[in-house]
Amino acid sequence: MSLILDHVGYIYGKGTNEEKRALDDVSLEIKEHEFIALIGRTGSGKSTLVQIFNGLEQPSEGTVYFNGRDISDKDFNKRELRGKVGLVFQYPEHQLFEETVIKDVQFGPGNMGFRPLDVEMYAFQALKDVGIGDELLDVSPLVLSGGQKRRVAIAGVLAMQPEILVLDEPMAGLDPVGRREILALLQKLYREKGMTIFFISHNMEEVAEVAGRVLVMDKGKIVLDGPPAKVFQYQKELEQIGLGVPQTVTLAGHLEERGWSFSEKPVTVHEMAAEILEKWNGGKNDS
Questions:
Q1: pTM of the predicted model, to two decimals?
Q2: Residue 135 shares a structural domain with residue 154
């Protein structure tokens, strides 16, 4: 499985007085079993980019390839692509509409043309994967908690059997418990299902905790691409484009000013705790 963007650009309102460039010469490859976070200020092009992934938006320039095929080819099956590259919009619970949870989750795979038996099987498995129990299958999704609604909405996409799960700020608007639940769900899907996860976030701590690769967007371009430990070393550059870094990176900088040395600045709380323990134990041994 691979998704490749080759010099992709996108212009809203092309040829009109409202013309605005949202993406500018973006080249990107997403490989099998990656856990990728996309960060950038509001208006930097993030949401437009992920809608390009599965053909919801057509690029104004460049080409998108899925498994080696140009998705703009006339004989390319866009419906199949949207099953393989599952997109979860921001606040997806607003799109829940069926009478019951199970019917809502069955809608996607049913619309994909799967066999009725498969639709039922995929829906039940997706709900199990997101932690929704049998007791909630026949209740209205509208009576669920915010975190439960979010998980049901994600299950509706998972039931279509995607190879890549793309989420636009999946933790937005949730309380701390709900955020932890969704974050744990994404980690579970990555580890146990071998799924490629691609998510947009404004929370640098969460990005540092779970992502193996971080993309930074600014003015429609990808300006940084690498593991969190590398990307978050560019603290000044990130601040110049209106982004922050995990608090651990800021703390590490203050400690360096006071004589501490790091081979690589810690980006997560666990990494910082390990560094402190190592230095503490080392200091004891020296004495």
A1: 0.93
A2: yes
